[in-house]
From TrEMBL, chain A:
<protein>
    <submittedName>
        <fullName>Putative ABC transport system ATP-binding protein</fullName>
    </submittedName>
</protein>
<feature type="domain" description="ABC transporter">
    <location>
        <begin position="7"/>
        <end position="248"/>
    </location>
</feature>
<dbReference type="InterPro" id="IPR017871">
    <property type="entry name" value="ABC_transporter-like_CS"/>
</dbReference>
<dbReference type="GO" id="GO:0005886">
    <property type="term" value="C:plasma membrane"/>
</dbReference>
<dbReference type="InterPro" id="IPR027417">
    <property type="entry name" value="P-loop_NTPase"/>
</dbReference>
<dbReference type="GO" id="GO:0005524">
    <property type="term" value="F:ATP binding"/>
</dbReference>
<keyword id="KW-0813">Transport</keyword>
<dbReference type="InterPro" id="IPR017911">
    <property type="entry name" value="MacB-like_ATP-bd"/>
</dbReference>
<dbReference type="InterPro" id="IPR003439">
    <property type="entry name" value="ABC_transporter-like_ATP-bd"/>
</dbReference>
From TrEMBL, chain B:
<keyword id="KW-0472">Membrane</keyword>
<feature type="transmembrane region" description="Helical">
    <location>
        <begin position="245"/>
        <end position="270"/>
    </location>
</feature>
<dbReference type="InterPro" id="IPR003838">
    <property type="entry name" value="ABC3_permease_C"/>
</dbReference>
<feature type="transmembrane region" description="Helical">
    <location>
        <begin position="659"/>
        <end position="676"/>
    </location>
</feature>
<dbReference type="GO" id="GO:0005886">
    <property type="term" value="C:plasma membrane"/>
</dbReference>
<feature type="transmembrane region" description="Helical">
    <location>
        <begin position="344"/>
        <end position="363"/>
    </location>
</feature>
<keyword id="KW-0812">Transmembrane</keyword>
<keyword id="KW-1003">Cell membrane</keyword>
<feature type="domain" description="ABC3 transporter permease C-terminal">
    <location>
        <begin position="257"/>
        <end position="374"/>
    </location>
</feature>
Length: 254, 788
């Protein structure tokens, strides 16, 4: 981890108009994520966690404020540039493990690589990289399977492989363990932690303190504001980290 | 609660419900208008002739011998009744406008005072014409297009020493002489105007004409019973009037095919859409079942919903079917009174039928509800027990780019839904191709053998010349010699001949028939093509068409009694052939058969074979020169001759139908592309959002969706090209069969049109429809993945 900011968020606001009523989901949010960090965003339901993730990753438009990713201001980028940035420099993992229904697991994983021209390689090399990632995450056996034929845990690990295929600088994960049982959840977090240890920055949204305890920092969001920030010492045992985090969350009114 | 779920469903799935409603409207519109048109076309000429009160037989005389014919008819036992219609005849030069010839129709026209009319004539709205205001004239047949006048426009009629000015009153439909094949248009005027003309002595002497409409006790033998009619008359049975409408029947027949295709397309689309929408409901069905709703309740919910949509759609479709049906039939309705007396009833019956069919489809599709379990709500419609492999292609092994791969893979993964589209596009394309092949064949020399005519360098079809033989003004040989001489005087040497039409009576096995016999002293019977037997070798051998042979119950080698020129002899049927002359009721004599010159009263046209066998370019320039020499524009090459015989405007009419079908097809394909793509977007919204989240640009996703339609249209094009010839034969041969070509026709298939132009149109239309609809995907954001 170094002190170079990969994501800088200043006075970020996001407002939805629902039935002519203005709903301020994010209100002047400010934070920074340095390269190599693994940051969890926590908060009660409806606090704006997912909106924050989608807005700072350029998937959704901000109403006001500045978001800089790798030094580039997202609000100044055109739709196509944002798409290219998502394809080449960002990886995404969703709670519902969305995948293309008509493709096999391996094809789903390598699809962003085939679309991108970031890494110059042949199709067989792309396929080999996809298989290597699957092997690394222990799901090589399901490479030719249909997405309906695999378990949730395997599918989420496949989603991690897909998010990693273009060697992104940062992974955004929206409740990556939300639809998984404890064992699968632990496995997925283990993989994300490994990726982070290898240098990939991770920002994830979670409800689960056990998951958040594996990160280096936790941002607590309430009613669209970052109400507090909690740094975690990843050198102490996980159980102690989790206890400390829970105490802090209690203090924050969780 | 039940209706609250239903209300919520209608609101939430607005797009898919609207798509389904549109398809129901289309299906009802196509079904109601098409069934009406099918009924109309099948009623066809019988309906028209019945409305017009046409008789079994007719006699035309262009001389002042009406009373003589009247006496003759009164003496024939088989004549049940007859009506006499006195009128005037004149050449097209008599009609002028501002000193110039009004229309170049190249034939004899008639002037009928409305009160003398013994048939029902109709205005453009199919109302019986009962009165014509003084000073006005209705036009029938080819004169309508030829004169191209607006209502109230003035023109002059000069007969004898009298000139009257008339105003154009509009088009009228004449069941007897109204077809362009007869090319004898009529002016229907007020009796006062007729009286002004007939008061002129010269007109009384030179222009009087009568038409007799004769009904017999035995209509089959009436023609032979009237064979002793005084000369200088044209006496024929109703079959020749039917023949004159054959091209309109072809057009109507083509419309019938269009209608059947439209019904097929609409029901296939409807079946697909219903099954598609029900399959999309798995999540809701699963949830409802999980909540404890019974199968019958869930099924009832969907049946009520589809019934509501079906009733609303069928009612809207019923209203739209009336103008749509009229637009379909318009191409032939200028010449014929087409219709049926039960339009509204048929439309209502069709709408009810569509609703029933929809409910049947829904009943069948909702059977799957029984099989869907709560687990389907979480397992994307799969039961978890029997998974099937979806993708057949592998991205890792494919050479295609991501967009191309996804497009192909989608098609291979959901073959059923794309096969339905391919089938619809193929049907539409084959429809256009068949019509184009028909139009091209009708205007090509390929039909020449079916007109019992050998290929020549040029053909003169000027009706003034032909009329000279009919009226006995000149003999057939005399005219041929005149033409040859005139050509030689202008430095063109050639042989002139003609296919003469003779009217003998045949009898075999106690059955009589009166086919037209073709005879050309300058050609050999062996020059023509026969389907069975051998060409007549001797004067006592004849060839018959299969229709005549079947009618007489004879075959090759059998004897028939032939009466001609007052003599009856036995003749051997040596061959069978096919012909379109008099709807296939044709025969052929051997060239050595002796025909007195005065017996040749009808010819197909004068054929000219130049002595020096010139090339095509020289022939073309000679034809132009001959038009100046003979002062007529009715000199053509082979293609032009075929078109003249068939009717110059028939090609235009068929091309009009073709254009209309192209437009209808284009609209259908656009509608299908738009509605299908919209339903695909609705179904694939999660994947679209996911692709955008992964970094796919909007244009990539739009390209992927558009490409799927392009692939489908391209596949449909390839299938259509392969099937073009057999399908054209399958669909159009029966229509040519009605005309007499029962063994089929050698179609003029133009590769550029069939392989390039029409597929390009279909692909372009499908791609445009899909592309502009796919642009809607721009409104789906990457962040929508969170809301799915």
């Amino acid at each position: 981890m170094n002190n170079t900011a990969i994501l800088e968020v200043k006075d970020l606001c996001k407002t939805y108009i629902i039935n002519k009523r203005q709903n301020n989901v994010l209100r002047n949010v400010n934070f920074k994520i340095n390269e190599g960090e693994m940051v969890a965003v926590m908060g009660p339901s409806g606090s704006g966690k997912s909106t924050l993730l989608y807005t700072v990753s350029g998937m959704d438009k901000m109403t006001a404020g500045d978001v800089k990713f790798c030094g580039r201001e997202l609000s100044k980028l055109k739709e196509n540039d944002l798409a290219k940035m998502r394809l080449d420099d960002m990886g995404f993992i969703f709670q519902q493990m969305y995948m293309m229904k008509n493709l096999s697991v391996l094809d789903n994983i390598i699809l962003p690589a085939v679309k991108s021209d970031k890494i110059k390689e042949s199709r067989s090399e792309t396929m080999k990289r996809g298989q290597d990632l699957m092997r690394k995450l222990g799901i090589i056996d399901i490479s030719d399977n249909d997405i309906n034929e695999v378990s949730g845990g395997q599918l989420q690990r496949a989603c991690i492989c897909r998010s990693m295929i273009n060697k992104p600088r940062m992974i955004f994960a929206d409740e990556p363990t939300g639809a998984l049982n404890r064992n699968s959840s632990d496995e997925v977090m283990e993989e994300l932690t490994k990726l982070n240890n290898e240098g990939t920055t991770v920002m994830l949204v979670t409800h689960d303190a056990k998951v958040a305890a594996k990160c280096s920092r936790v941002l607590f969001i309430v009613d669209g504001n970052i109400n507090g920030e909690y740094n975690i010492n990843r050198k102490i045992p996980l159980r102690d980290r989790e206890r400390g985090l829970n105490n802090w969350l209690l203090e924050m009114g969780w | 609660m039940y209706f609250r779920i239903l209300k919520k469903d209608l609101k939430r799935k607005k797009t898919m419900n609207i798509i389904l409603l549109l398809f129901v409207i289309l299906a009802t519109m196509f079904a109601a208008s098409s069934v009406n048109n099918i009924t109309t076309v099948l009623n066809g000429l019988d309906y028209y002739f019945e409305k017009a009160d046409l008789s079994d037989h007719f006699i035309i005389t262009l001389a002042d011998n009406g009373d003589e014919i009247e006496d003759f008819l009164s003496g024939v036992q088989n004549v049940k009744d007859f009506r006499r219609e006195d009128q005037l005849f004149f050449n097209d030069t008599a009609l002028t406008k501002n000193g110039k010839k009004l229309a170049d129709i190249g034939s004899t026209a008639l002037l009928l005072p409305i009160d003398n009319g013994k048939l029902n004539y109709f205005d453009k709205d199919n109302e019986i014409l009962k009165k014509v205001p003084e000073g006005y004239a209705y036009f029938t047949g080819c004169l309508v297009k030829g004169a191209d006048l607006d209502y109230g426009e003035k023109f002059q009629l000069n007969l004898g020493d009298t000139e009257i000015t008339l105003k154009y009153a509009g088009l009228a439909k004449d069941a007897f002489l109204g077809s362009e094949m007869f090319n004898n248009p009529r002016l229907i005027v007020n009796n006062a105007d007729y009286d002004t003309l007939i008061a002129d002595e010269k007109v009384r002497e030179n222009n009087r004409s009568s038409i007799f409409y004769v009904n017999g006790y035995n209509s089959k033998t009436l023609e032979s019973d009237l064979s002793d009619i005084p000369t200088n008359t044209f006496s024929k049975g109703i079959s020749i009037v039917r023949t004159s409408y054959i091209m309109y029947i072809i057009v109507a027949g083509l419309l019938l095919i269009v209608s059947v295709c439209l019904i097929l397309v609409s029901f296939v689309v409807l079946r697909f859409t219903i099954s598609f929408t029900v399959n999309e409901e798995f999540r809701e069905i699963g949830v409802m079942k999980a909540l404890g709703l019974k199968n019958s309740s869930v099924r009832g919910l969907y049946l009520v919903k589809y019934f509501g949509i079906a009733v609303i759609g069928a009612f809207a479709g019923l209203l739209l079917s009336i103008p749509f049906g009229n637009a379909l039939i318009r191409s032939v309705s200028d010449y014929m009174v087409l219709g049926n007396d039960h339009t509204v009833l048929i439309s209502i019956a069709c709408s009810i039928f569509v609703v029933l069919i929809i409910m049947l489809f829904c009943w069948r599709c909702t059977r799957r509800i029984k099989k869907l379990s709560p687990i389907d709500a979480v397992r994307s419609g799969q039961t978890g027990e029997r998974f099937k492999k979806k993708g057949l292609m592998h991205l890792g092994k494919s050479k295609l780019g991501a967009t191309g791969f996804l497009a192909f893979n989608d098609i291979f993964s959901s073959p059923k839904q794309f096969c339905v589209m391919t089938a619809i596009f193929t049907v539409c394309l084959l429809l256009i191709m068949s019509l184009a092949n028909t139009a091209n064949t009708l205007s090509s020399g390929k039909l020449l053998p079916l007109m019992c005519t050998q290929e020549s360098d040029a053909y003169i079809t000027d009706t003034d010349l032909i009329a000279k033989i009919m009226t006995g003004e000149k003999t057939y040989k005399g005219i041929c010699e005149d033409i040859e001489k005139k050509l030689a005087d202008n430095g063109i040497s050639g042989k002139v001949s003609s296919e003469a039409m003779l009217f003998p009576t045949l009898e075999a096995n106690g059955i009589k028939a009166s086919p037209i016999f073709m005879y050309n002293s300058e050609t050999k019977a062996s020059d023509y093509t026969y389907s069975e037997g051998y060409a007549p070798k001797y004067a006592n051998e004849i060839a018959l068409t299969k229709q005549v042979a079947e009618k007489l119950d004879v075959g090759v080698g059998d004897k028939v009694k032939l009466t001609f020129n007052g003599k009856t002899d036995d003749y051997i049927v040596s061959a069978l052939f096919q012909s379109m002359v008099q709807m296939g009721e044709t025969g052929r004599f051997h060239e050595s058969f002796e025909v007195p010159d005065e017996f040749i009263t009808q010819v197909m046209g004068f054929q000219i074979d130049f002595d020096d066998s010139p090339d095509k370019k020289t022939i073309e320039s000679r034809i132009e020169k001959m038009k100046d020499i003979f002062g007529t524009k009715y000199i053509d090459d082979t293609d032009g001759f075929v078109m003249t015989v068939i009717g110059k405007n028939v090609k235009d009419t068929i091309n009009g139908v073709k254009l209309m079908v192209i437009i209808i097809t284009a609209i259908i394909i656009i509608l299908i592309s738009v509605l299908m793509e919209r339903s695909f977007i609705s179904k694939e919204k999660p994947e679209i959002a996911l692709m955008k989240a992964m970094g796919f640009k909007s244009r990539s996703v739009v390209a992927q969706h558009t490409l799927r339609f392009a692939i489908v249209a391209a596949v449909a094009s390839v299938i259509s090209i392969a099937l073009c010839s057999p399908v054209t034969k399958l669909c159009i041969n029966p229509i040519f069969g009605i005309m007499g070509a029962i063994n089929g026709v050698d179609y003029n298939i133009r590769p550029v049109e069939v392989c390039i132009i029409y597929p390009a149109i279909i692909i372009a239309v499908a791609v445009a429809g899909a592309y502009f609809t796919a642009l809607y995907m721009r409104s789906i954001k990457a962040s929508d993945t969170a809301d799915i």
